[in-house]
Design brief:
The chain is mainly alpha-helical and 186 residues long. The protein contains six helices and three strands. Helix 1 runs antiparallel to helix 4, helix 3 crosses helix 5 and helix 4 runs antiparallel to helix 5. The longest helix has 29 residues. It starts with 8 loop residues before the first helix and ends in an 8-residue tail after the last helix. The relative contact order is 0.11.
């Protein structure tokens, strides 16, 4: 069987799809074993629950920002309440794990050196969550559940974030085209 070259588009596509499916479904599996139900594993829920940790960080940062800009805000493990503005529920689908799975799979699969990949990966994942915090802050202050929009805020956020990711990945990939080839004369 012929091995695929490191920079082969087919290799990239296969690695990307494999990693994306692994990350995406691992998160769903992990959520199922840390949620009370038939597959619940108390030890993992109590000691290794990165989903709860992410939710708590997002809620705490959002609450702090809202309070800093002059609103009164409280939160619990799943909700953000701004006095006089309403409440938002932060459920699994709000955490951006699917978006993060897509981004991480792409960056890891793309044939670049390790250091630039790690820097871009960490910066990108943090940026995705900063945009998520911005969404929570805006929703908590402005969202009216009674409004009858065709699209819900999850869909709007996903469209915006995938556009941003696509543009960012395009420039990150094109960055290699601007690098001089080793040994080439200008």
């Amino acid at each position: 069987m012929k091995r695929l070259h490191r920079e082969s588009p087919l290799r990239f596509l296969l690695v990307f799809l494999g990693l994306f499916l692994f990350f995406y479904y691992f998160n769903i599996f992990f959520f199922s074993i840390t949620s009370h139900g038939s597959h619940y594993v108390p030890f993992i829920d109590e000691h290794l629950n990165y989903i709860r940790l992410l939710r708590n960080i997002l809620l705490d940062v959002s609450r702090s920002i809202i309070n800093t800009i002059g609103f009164t805000c409280i939160s619990n493990d799943y909700q953000l309440l701004v006095a006089g503005h309403g409440i938002i529920d932060v459920v699994y689908s709000c955490l951006g794990l699917g978006v993060m799975s897509f981004f991480a799979a792409f960056v890891i699969a793309y044939p670049k050196k390790l250091k630039p990949k790690l820097i871009f990966l960490l910066t990108g994942l943090i940026s995705i969550q900063l945009l998520n915090v911005l969404r929570f802050v805006l929703l908590a202050i402005l969202w009216d559940k009674k409004s009858h929009l065709i699209l819900d805020h999850h869909t709007i956020f996903n469209i915006i974030i995938y556009i941003i990711i696509t543009i960012t990945l395009y420039f990150w990939v094109k960055q290699d085209d601007k690098q001089p080839v080793a040994g080439a004369k200008n």
